[in-house]
Amino acid sequence: MLQFKLVLLGDSSVGKSSIVHRFVKDSFDEFRESTIGAAFLSQTIKLENEPDVTIKFEIWDTAGQERYKSLAPMYYRNANAALVVYDVTQADSLAKARSWVEELKSKVSDKDLVICLVGNKVDLCEDGSEPKAVEKEDAESYAAEHGLLFHEVSAKSGSGVSAVFQQIGSKLYAQKKDSLAASSQQRNTVNVELQRPSTNDATSCCS
Amino acid sequence: MVLSNGSTTSGVSQAAGLDDSDEYACPICEEEVKGLVNLNSHLDDVHQLGMKKAEDREGRPSKLPNGTKKHAKIDRHLRRQIDMKKDHWIRPIKGSSRCEFCHQILNQENGIINCRKCGLLFCRAHCKQPVKLDRMAHYDPIRGEPCKCCLKCLENRPGYNEFGFIRDRTAVFSKARKSNNEDRDLRELQLEHRFIRLVNGIVYVYRVFEGTFMASLRISAEISKLEKSIVPWERDEFAIRCYICETAFAITVRKHHCRLCGKVVCDNEINNCSNLLPLKNLINAAADLPLKITAQTGADVLDIEIRICAVCLQSLFKKRKFLKERVTPLSALLQKYESLHDISRVIMGILPNVERVLDRAGGIDATPDEISQLSKLRRKLLDSFSMYDFMTKQILQMQASNASEARIIASIKLSSATFIQDKMLPLKSISSVISSKLNTQERTSPQASEQLKFDNDLTIKEVKSCRTQLMVLKEQRFLVQEMIEDATKRRKLDEASTLTSNVNEIDVQIEELTKKLGQQGFK
């Protein structure tokens, strides 16, 4: 099993926590309270294109409010992937997302960091209750320019959420595969099976 | 509610030692009365609560006609001398008996007197309290005769209370208050009915006579007929003075009739005894009444003016106006001003504290603790002032919607400027004290000076941002620790280990920040 650290960044109330909860618990709360500090969740997935690979995401869901901005570096520093979220109905949130991308590019030395730009709340535009402030093409071209993955999702309806993590997972796996293959030849590892089934029978004291 | 005896007014208030300069509101009619004595007499006179007591007093035997009174007294005195129980009296021993109270030796001069109740010996000064006793020297407050007793026996008598006599009058007062309120409500209801009839009548008159021959003349005649049918007018020749301001009527002080109560009033502009009020305004003010005003009602009807005296106006519209004003929210400007006022109150609260600490820290032997307290206060004061300044600027940027708002804004500007100038003064002395103290400390310890320099390198803004960072980190540490507990409970040990490493990371950052902040950090 591969473990990857993933961090969510973005302006406040764009729906970072909602995306994570849709992904981890497959639930949606209309009236979610704003996150304090940074929340930690984990989820294991199987890759669709390579069914024998399981990937565990350790997700740090950071608060978008300005007050907690100083916490973010701690969480993106050693991250393998970053989800930069914006709200498709708020043009300002994309500008904020761009600044996050720039910060990531300048502060994180790891060249393998996978950044994914995610436009959330597309359901609002589909049912016509709010106009779309950010066109898909604009964001897509920006993402392509900076080498980011791009998705439009809706945490409310759940559309596109799992695709985001699938794509990130397969990209991370592809990166990891080469280095893993290289290192496994050199290393002489001893496998300690931590989660082996209990060998205790009923006669032993610690049944 | 408990009030001292209603009738024996002066005695009670003196005994209770109450200050007569206070204002009291009557529990029944809420009239303001100065002093307890006046409140009691007000209750007795206006609400007739003292009557019963007065009758009691008349029924007493002491109010006997003069001639028989004296005779009876002598008679009773003699009888008591003979009949009184005396065998419990202690016999005085000449030259060695002492007063039980003041312990002076008793002699002919200061008197040798047995307390009639307990029989002990006292001097004259300490055995003169009249207590009513029967012949067997038992307390008998009704039929007993007043006998000389000591203070102790006076205080031990049944029903004696050091703090005066207390009687609960709450039920009486609330009953009287209720009937008083009912009277007032009835009066109001009556006035409302008259007002409705008057307005509807005027509307009707207009509807019938509008457009007919000589309409204006006939309408005014009909209206004056209507006005007199609603309430019988007081006759002019009986009215000598205005019933509100009591000014005598003359050629210049004309008589007018209130259309709602029919009484004769003047139209003094200063006292506002009565006013001609446009129907339009009255209807607006009493929109809840069932008036037959429709959209078709002409403007000339609404422009009619009715004369209403101040008393009727008060009882009809005061409550309505109050309710209306309570519902409408404050304007944006006033809301801003309220918050500005709150901040100024905070500043005023800090200032005396500052002066006290300044006095102590200004001395030569001020402890570092006091100095740090002073710098804390200074920071607090600075924050409040910047907040105050910010609020003032916000108010000044507001657009005045009318002339009076513009005036308000201008005066806020003026007063806030003087406020800041006035109250900033102590701030200067604080910083001078702090800097002088720091200088002396610098000279004494070179190590401390290094530390201080480091502190001073940070600007206030930097310190602030560092502090928020520190706060956020500490919050986060707490949150992550909770998450660890949760994860361990759920046996997700790999999650817990990730989280623990995060806590360690946070700890490192916290340490860095506290080092950076140095003395400016949290204690």
From TrEMBL, chain A:
Membrane topology label: Lipid-anchor
**Where is the region Disordered?**
182-207
Decide whether keyword Cell membrane is in the record.
yes
Q: Which SUPFAM superfamilies match?
A: P-loop containing nucleoside triphosphate hydrolases (SSF52540)
InterPro entries recorded: P-loop_NTPase, Small_GTP-bd, Small_GTPase
Location of the protein in the cell: Cell membrane
- UniProt keyword GTP-binding, yes or no: yes
Q: Please provide one cellular component term from the Gene Ontology annotations of this protein.
A: endosome
Q: Which GO terms describe its biological process?
A: protein transport; vesicle organization; vesicle-mediated transport
Q: What protein is this chain from? A: LAMI_0H14444g1_1
Q: Which Pfam families match?
A: Ras (PF00071)
This protein's source sits in the domain of life called Eukaryota
Protein keywords: Cell membrane, GTP-binding, Lipoprotein, Membrane, Nucleotide-binding, Prenylation, Protein transport, Transport
Which protein family is it in? Belongs to the small GTPase superfamily. Rab family.
Single Gene Ontology MF annotation: GTPase activity
Automatic annotation (TrEMBL), chain B:
FYVE-type domain ranges (all copies): 236-317
Q: Name one Pfam family in it.
A: Rbsn
According to the record, the residues making up region (Disordered) are 51-72
Record-linked CDD domains: FYVE2_Vac1p_like
Kindly state which keywords UniProt assigns to this record, in alphabetical order: Metal-binding, Zinc, Zinc-finger
Q: May I have one GO cellular component term? A: bounding membrane of organelle
Q: Which organism is it from?
A: Lachancea mirantina
Q: Which Gene3D superfamilies match?
A: Zinc/RING finger domain, C3HC4 (zinc finger)
Query: What does the organism's lineage look like at the top?
Result: Eukaryota, Fungi, Dikarya, Ascomycota, Saccharomycotina
Report the SUPFAM superfamilies cross-referenced here: FYVE/PHD zinc finger (SSF57903), Rabenosyn-5 Rab-binding domain-like (SSF140125)
Gene Ontology MF terms = phosphatidylinositol-3-phosphate binding; zinc ion binding
What segments bear the compositional bias annotation Basic and acidic residues? 51-61
Q: What is this protein called?
A: LAMI_0C04456g1_1
Reading the lineage from the top rank, the first entry is Eukaryota
